[in-house]
Amino acid sequence: MEHIWLVSKDAEVEVALNHPDLHVRPPDEPVPKAMRGALLGDVFARLARMNEGPRHDELRERIVRIIDGWDTARVCALARDASRTMPAREVGAYVVAVMSGLTQPEKAMPLIHDFAEAIAGGASDEAIARGVDATPRLLELLPNRADVDERANRLGLLFQAYADRRSRGTAGHYDAPLGGVRRKPLRLAVEARRRPRHLADVAAVSLR
Questions:
Q1: Contact of 44 with 119, CB cutoff 8 Å
Q2: Using one digit for the tens of pLDDT, what is the confidence trace for 108-135?
Q3: What is the pLDDT of residues 152-189, one digit of tens each?
């Protein structure tokens, strides 16, 4: 029998979010079986969004610090320029790829797509197989200065930024301000300058 949680008060929400039955992964399967033994599985296990408790908090803080260091004027310029030549669903991931130091970000878009679809909830075995192939190639494009946790979560940001109907991450958080630049580039630029912590705020909400 399936159950649903209905909560309406702050204290109840806190209890629900901390209940073992609502953890992001089953306790006996922290990594999907189809990913085990592959770099994709190692990356999956290190993602902030796939961890609980102190480990989650530690990884989340690191990611927020990374995004907080991004220059919002550059983000706006990248999004504005990319929106002229790229599909709207790819603009957010492209911007995050550039800001994360990914080499050849435009050529990496198919790899990002395959990685994102493999991480998405309900991914098919075929999608996971493509993600297994894409993950080591993506890691090669990341700067080597970061440790394994940071590199994994930089890929996690790419997953969250990739706006694809079949990838159910928090793509909307990024695609709304970034992908929508095609329609309102000036408004985006002004808003980002008014709210310099906007990107870090988004990260804090989406990684909770």
A1: yes
A2: 999 999 999 999 888 999 999 999 999 9
A3: 999 999 998 885 444 444 444 444 444 443 344 334 44
Integer CA distances (angstroms), 93 to 49, 58, 113, 135, 148, in order: 17, 24, 9, 15, 20
CA dihedral 144, 145, 148, 154 (to 10 degrees): -90
Q: How many domains does the chain have?
A: 1
Q: Is residue 4 part of a domain?
A: no
Q: Which residues contact 177 (CB under 8 A, 6 or more apart)?
A: 79, 188, 191, 192, 198, 202
Q: Is residue 129 part of a domain?
A: yes
Q: Is 201 exposed, middle or buried (0-12, 13-18, 19+ CB in 10 A)?
A: middle
Buried b (16+ CB within 10 A) or exposed e, 4-41: eeeeeeeeeeeeeeeeeeeeeeeeeebbbebbeebbbb
**Would you say how long the chain is, in residues?**
208
Q: How confident is the model at residue 201 (pLDDT cuts 50, 70, 90)?
A: very low
- Domain interval for residue 117: 32-206
CA–CA dist 166, 128 (Å, integer): 13
Residue 151 lies in a domain: yes
The label of the residue with tokens 């494009």 reads 141
Residue 82: inside a domain, yes or no?
Answer: yes
